[in-house]
Amino acid sequence: MNRIISEQFGLFRLYQRLREQLLATISEDDLSFSPGGSNPTLGELCLEIGETERAYIDSFHTFTQRFDYRHSDRGLSGSVAGLKVWFEELDAELYAAIEALGDDDVANRLIDRGHDFRVPANVQLEIYKEALIIFYAKADVYLKLLGKLPSEQWREWMG
User: Fold this and answer.
1) Helix (H) or strand (E) run with residue 127 in it
2) Strands, DSSP E only, in 12-154?
3) Most C-beta atoms within 10 A of its C-beta, which of 86, 154, 155, 157?
């Protein structure tokens, strides 16, 4: 077990669980909601964070960050059950990718995020956690506009 798994992943998993709580709060109809303007629907926002997670999973395998992945089934953005299954699969892949890192990878290899920005794997996971927080902040606005009451943990962590 590498240092990221033993020291960092437990807390990170709590942040992932907020996404599960979001999906437990919303309905299929809610996924088609957009606050207007050029804002995506809530379902498209959920699809986007899954595509972002895929980019991070791949970065732990290749040590290069790319954000060009797009899920081939755009209709997934309209299915709470489908998103839930996909997120579970992604989360399992993320854990496996990080768990597969050797101690030397964790201590010495840098992930190239482009533009001369390279970070160690533990920092890469922290940056992904920040992406999750940004997603949750956006989703929280949607929940408030929809009149949805999220979980207690969501309310405590996101306001």
Assistant:
1) helix 121-146
2) 110-112, 118-120
3) 154
Confidence at residue 159, expressed as pLDDT on a 0 to 100 scale: 82
74 Cβ contact partners less than 8 Å away, ≥ 6 residues apart: 47
Distance CA 108, CA 96 (A): 19
DSSP, collapsed to helix, strand or coil, labels residue 31 as helix
Average per-residue pLDDT for the chain: 97
What proportions of the chain, in percent to the nearest 5, are helix, strand and coil?
A: 70, 5, 25
Residues in the chain: 159
* Burial (0-12, 13-18, 19+ Cβ within 10 Å), 109: middle
pTM for the predicted model, two decimal places: 0.96
